[in-house]
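Hi R.,

As promised on Friday, here is the backbone we talked about, encoded as structure tokens. Could you run it through your design pipeline when you get a chance and send me back a sequence?
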């Protein structure tokens, strides 16, 4: 807590500015409110007031978070879902946010990342198996669905498979 105690109105102004600067989830705002020295009842009251005045909107936050992480960091759906769950966003808002990601755009980004990673793996002792493993692990770490990763590797880089499907 800071050196001086804020009135409820001063805290509300700070929270409005906090929400106005960048889209926030409910959990971030509550954490900020507690850091301002507010009690639980005051935090709940001010959170409700921020929602009423449309400074705080969890669905809007989830959509912007999902779209931003996908476009700027090329995160896959699994990593986006995990990030939203860490911020305690409701399942309803998470599902709404995922619908904002265009399927064709998602697949194009996924394939582009796979090809970029595949082509970046060079060096002594690097064979197709190593490239496939590193590409697979990279895509999964970016939050892409494992089944989709395996299917893409099988489809795009068929040289790995002997035709028996293994």
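Update: got your reply. Pasting your designed sequence below so it's all in one thread:
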């Amino acid at each position: 807590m800071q050196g001086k105690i804020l009135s409820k109105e001063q805290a509300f102004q700070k929270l409005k500015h906090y929400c106005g600067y960048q889209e926030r989830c409910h959990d971030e705002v509550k954490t900020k409110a507690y850091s301002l020295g507010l009690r639980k009842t005051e935090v709940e009251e001010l959170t409700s007031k921020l929602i009423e005045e449309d400074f705080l909107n969890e669905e809007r936050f989830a959509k912007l978070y999902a779209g931003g992480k996908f476009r700027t960091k090329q995160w896959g759906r699994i990593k986006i879902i995990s990030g939203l769950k860490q911020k305690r966003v409701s399942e309803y808002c998470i599902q709404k946010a995922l619908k904002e990601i265009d399927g064709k755009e998602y697949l194009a980004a996924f394939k582009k990342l796979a090809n970029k990673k595949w082509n970046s793996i060079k060096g002594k002792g690097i064979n197709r198996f190593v490239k496939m493993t590193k590409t697979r692990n990279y895509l999964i770490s970016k939050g892409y669905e494992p089944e989709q990763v395996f299917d893409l590797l099988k489809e795009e880089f068929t040289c790995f498979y002997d035709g028996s499907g293994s």
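One thing I noticed while checking it: The CA atoms of residues 116 and 135 lie 9 Å apart.

Thanks again,
M.
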